[in-house]
Amino acid sequence: MSTATPEQQRALLELERVDARLRRIAGRIVELKNDPEVAAALQLRARAITAAQELDAGEQEIRRRLDEAEQKVARVQASIEKDRKRLEQGGTMKDLMGLQHEIETRTRQLAEAEEAELEIMQELDDAVAHRARITPRLKEADADARRRVAARDEEGRSLTEERAGLAGPRAAAAEAVGNAPLLARYERIRTGRGAARPAAAELRGTTCGACGTALSPADAASFASSAADEVLTCPECGVIVVRA
């Protein structure tokens, strides 16, 4: 059985108050790192970036094809003009008939090339219009993710600063206990089971302030008959219970 003055035992409550805040900070930091809403926003942003890249690649491909189509139209037009000039210069009947046939053939090719060019131009117009419709949604996905990440990081920084700021108050609260065995017992309970947990709580009537369990009649009688300097623990959760 360990003992400590009532004042030393009550000093544990202030230490526990600081540790409770540290536990909440640690828990919140973990929550922030695993925030499902931030994760979902980042996934949506990643898909938006991929969609934007695909739009860029698709539009560039259409423009490349349009450039090729325009060059083809220009080549056919140049060939027709060249044949017409040769036709105007005259020549044998056979040569003139050959040139006329070549011009007719080239003219059909020109019509086909211009039709293909118009189709690609329409395709480009559709792609540009699609980009105009979808870009605001892509930008909003990016902006939303940035807002959420910024808010998460800002809260994380604030919590980290608060945690650092509690180092002094915690050391002072631990020193105020003034009972090394009691403090060591508190620390064993606090860090037991591999994680930080409550180690001291006020006994509220016959109810543990940590787990909320009411003492059995036998335990309540035992607590009532205990000496004021006897360090008591909750039979249910094992924390040090401090009598008012």
Keywords:
244 residues, mainly alpha, Helix Hairpins, 2 domains, 4 strands, 76% helix
Task: Explain the overall architecture.
- It contains 6 helices and 4 strands.
- With 244 residues, the chain is mainly alpha-helical.
- The radius of gyration is 41 Å and the shape is rod-shaped.
- The model has no long low-confidence stretch (mean pLDDT 93).
- The chain folds into 2 domains: 6-24 and 168-243, Helix Hairpins (Orthogonal Bundle), CATH 1.10.287; 35-165, Helix Hairpins (Orthogonal Bundle), CATH 1.10.287.1700.
Q: At the third CATH level, what is the topology name of the largest domain?
A: Helix Hairpins
Q: Which strand order do you get reading across the main beta sheet? A: 2-1-4-3
Helical percentage: over 70%
Overall CATH architecture of the largest domain: Orthogonal Bundle
First-to-last CA distance: 20 Å
Order of helices and strands: HHHHHEEHEE
Strand residues, percent: 5-15%
> Tell me about the biggest sheet?
4 strands, mixed
Helices and strands: which structural class?
mainly alpha
Shape: rod-shaped
- The total beta strand count reads 4
> What are the low-pLDDT stretches, counting only 5+ consecutive residues below 50?
none
Total discrete domains = 2
Compute the CA-based radius of gyration. 41 Å
In brief:
With 244 residues, the protein is mainly alpha-helical. The chain has helices at 6-33, 36-88, 93-165, 167-177, 180-190, 217-225; strands at 200-204, 207-208, 232-233, 240-243. The chain folds into 2 domains: 6-24 and 168-243, Helix Hairpins (Orthogonal Bundle); 35-165, Orthogonal Bundle (Helix Hairpins).
